[in-house]
Amino acid sequence: MKKIFVLLLLITLNSCAEYPATHIPHIAGYWEIEKVTLNDGSIKEYTFNDTIDYIQITDSMSGLRKKLKPNLMGTFETSKSMEIFSMSIENDSLYMHYKTPYANWKETVLKADETQLIILNTNKDMYLYKRYKPLDLE
C-alpha cells in the first residue's frame, strides 16, 4: 500500500510539474531535511538536524553542495569537502549529476521553490527539504 502511495505521489508531482528549468533559480541556498520517504514507503521524519545542505549554483547548469554545521554564533562550521554537480534537462526532468573520486550518481529535482526542495535519488528515496532558518535565541 505504501509503495502505491509513493508511486501516486511521484506521478502527481511529475504531472503537475512546470518546465524543469524553472526550478533552477530556487535550488541555491541553505536547506534542511524535513523528511525522507524511502523506496519501501517508510517515512523518516527529521525533527532536528545538526547539519544542513548548502547548494551554490556557479553558473546556469552547474554548482556545488556542502554539508554545514550551524553554531550558536550564527555562523557555520564546514569541512573542505564538497560535491561538484552539473545539471541537465532530459525527458522533461531536471537532473543533478554528481561525480567524486569515489562515486558517480544523479538525482532528480521534482520540485524547487522558495520554501521546498524535493529530490529523488537513484535508490528512489525522496528527500523533502525546507529552507533553513537560523535558530532565534532571543
UniProtKB/TrEMBL annotation:
Domain (Lipocalin-like) ranges: 27-118
Keywords on record: Signal
Annotated protein name in UniProt: Lipocalin-like domain-containing protein
Protein's organism: Psychroserpens algicola
Taxonomic path: Bacteria, Pseudomonadati, Bacteroidota, Flavobacteriia, Flavobacteriales
Domain of life: Bacteria
Signal peptide: 1-17
InterPro entries associated with the record: Lipocalin-like (IPR024311)
